[in-house]
Design brief:
InterPro entries: BUG, Bug_dom1. This protein is an alpha/beta fold. It has eleven helices and ten strands. It folds into two domains: 57-146 and 277-338, D-Maltodextrin-Binding Protein, domain 2, CATH 3.40.190; 147-246, Periplasmic binding protein-like II (D-Maltodextrin-Binding Protein, domain 2), CATH 3.40.190.10.
Length: 339
C-alpha cells in the first residue's frame, strides 16, 4: 500500500524510524478489528440460529446412563429447534475429554455438552484439568436426577444383602467391582459402599458404564453400582444380574420390592446423579435462550416423561431447568465434593 494512503494521523516522516509504540498501536487496532469482526459474525449467526445440525457431546460410551438420557432428549430438542440434534460419544479420562472438547469448541451453539455430577467432582479428582467447570461454559439448565442400584453378576454366590456383606468381608481380596472410569459416579458409589462396609475390593475401571454392565452380565466382574437409567431394564428382566438395593433413602416406584441400602443397614447411604447441559463460554445469550427453551420443551415431552419414569428417574422442575439454577448448583457441588 503506498505511504500516502496511510491516514494522516498515523503518518511518519520518510527516513525516520517509526516508534515501536506506533507499530504496536496499529497492530492493536488490527487485532481489535478482528475481534470485533468475529464477535459480529457470531452475533449475526445467533439471529438465524440454528441453521444446521447440533452436536450434543456425551462423556461416556453409547448405551450408558448419560447416553440414554441424551438420546431421549435429542429428538424433542431437535423438533423444537427445527434441526437434528446428533449425539456423539467422546469417551475417556474419566469423562474429562468431552468437556475439554466442548470448552474449546466455537461458541456458536452447535456443540453442546450433557454431563452428570462428574462436572463437579473432576476438580477434586484431577490436579490439572484442561478446563474449568465454573469458568469455561455457559449454562443451559439442569435436566434430571437419577438414583442408583447395587448389582452383581447372576452367578454371584450371595443372593441377599446380608449374604453379600458376609461374602465381601470374607473374600474381599477376590471380589471385583466395576465402574465407568475414574471420577464416574459409579466409582464414587463404589468407594462409598466399600467405606461404609469396611472392605477394600478390587475395582475394575471401564471407558463407560455400558461396557461395565456388559461385563457384569457376562460374568467377568462381580459387582457394579450404577444408575437406574441403565439398570432398571436389567433388573426387571431378572435373568442377567442380581440386585441388592437402591442407593437413595426411599424405594423406587418402578422397583417397589427392592429395599434401599439405608434400610438394610448402611445408614445414611444416599447417592443420586444429577445431570446438566452446557455450551462453550461466550455462546451468545440469544442462542443459550433458544437451547434452554428447547430443553424445557423436551422435559415436558410425553415420551420423555414416560421413559424417564420407567427408568425410575426424576426430571427437574421448570425452576431448575434454567441457566441460573445450574450455575448455582454446580458451584455448590464443586465446593461440596472438593471438601
Amino acid at each position: 500500500m503506498p505511504f500516502t494512503s496511510i491516514p494522516h494521523s498515523l503518518a511518519w516522516p520518510v527516513g525516520r524510524r517509526k516508534p515501536l509504540t506506533a507499530v504496536r498501536g496499529i497492530s492493536g487496532c488490527a487485532f481489535a478489528g478482528l475481534a470485533l469482526a468475529g464477535a459480529f459474525t457470531i452475533s449475526a449467526h445467533a439471529a438465524g440460529y440454528p441453521d444446521k445440525s447440533i452436536v450434543m457431546v456425551v462423556p461416556y460410551s453409547a448405551g450408558g446412563p448419560t447416553d440414554v438420557v441424551a438420546r431421549l432428549l435429542a429428538v424433542p430438542m431437535g423438533q423444537s429447534l427445527g434441526q437434528t440434534v446428533v449425539v456423539e460419544n467422546t469417551v475417556g479420562a474419566g469423562g474429562t475429554i468431552a468437556p475439554a472438547r466442548v470448552a474449546r469448541a466455537r461458541p456458536d451453539g452447535y456443540t453442546i455438552l450433557i454431563h452428570h455430577m462428574g462436572m463437579a467432582t473432576a476438580p477434586a479428582l484431577y490436579k490439572k484439568l484442561p478446563y474449568d467447570p465454573l469458568k469455561d461454559f455457559e449454562y443451559i439448565g439442569q435436566v434430571l436426577d437419577v438414583p442408583m442400584t447395587l448389582l452383581s453378576r447372576k452367578e454371584f454366590p450371595a443372593s441377599t444383602f446380608p449374604e453379600l456383606l458376609d461374602h465381601v468381608k470374607k473374600h474381599q481380596d477376590s471380589v471385583t467391582m466395576a465402574h465407568a472410569g475414574t471420577g464416574a459416579v459409579s466409582q464414587l458409589c463404589s468407594l462409598l459402599f466399600m467405606n461404609q462396609v469396611g472392605v477394600k475390593l478390587t475395582t475394575v475401571p471401564y471407558k463407560g458404564a455400558g461396557p461395565a454392565m456388559n461385563d457384569l452380565m457376562g460374568g467377568q466382574v462381580d459387582l457394579l453400582c450404577d444408575q437406574t437409567t441403565q439398570t432398571v431394564p436389567v433388573i426387571q428382566d431378572g435373568k442377567r444380574a442380581k440386585v441388592f438395593g437402591v442407593t437413595t433413602p426411599r424405594r423406587l416406584a418402578s422397583l417397589p420390592a427392592i429395599p434401599t441400602l439405608d434400610e438394610q443397614g448402611l445408614k445414611g447411604f444416599d447417592v443420586k446423579v444429577w445431570h446438566g447441559m452446557y455450551a462453550p463460554k461466550g455462546t451468545p445469550r440469544e442462542v443459550v435462550e433458544k437451547l434452554n427453551k428447547a430443553l424445557n420443551a423436551a422435559l415436558v415431552d410425553d415420551n420423555v416423561k414416560k421413559r424417564i419414569a420407567e427408568l425410575s428417574s426424576d426430571l427437574v422442575s421448570p425452576d431448575k431447568a434454567t441457566p441460573e439454577s445450574l450455575r448455582t448448583h454446580l458451584a455448590a457441588e464443586v465446593d461440596r465434593w472438593g471438601r
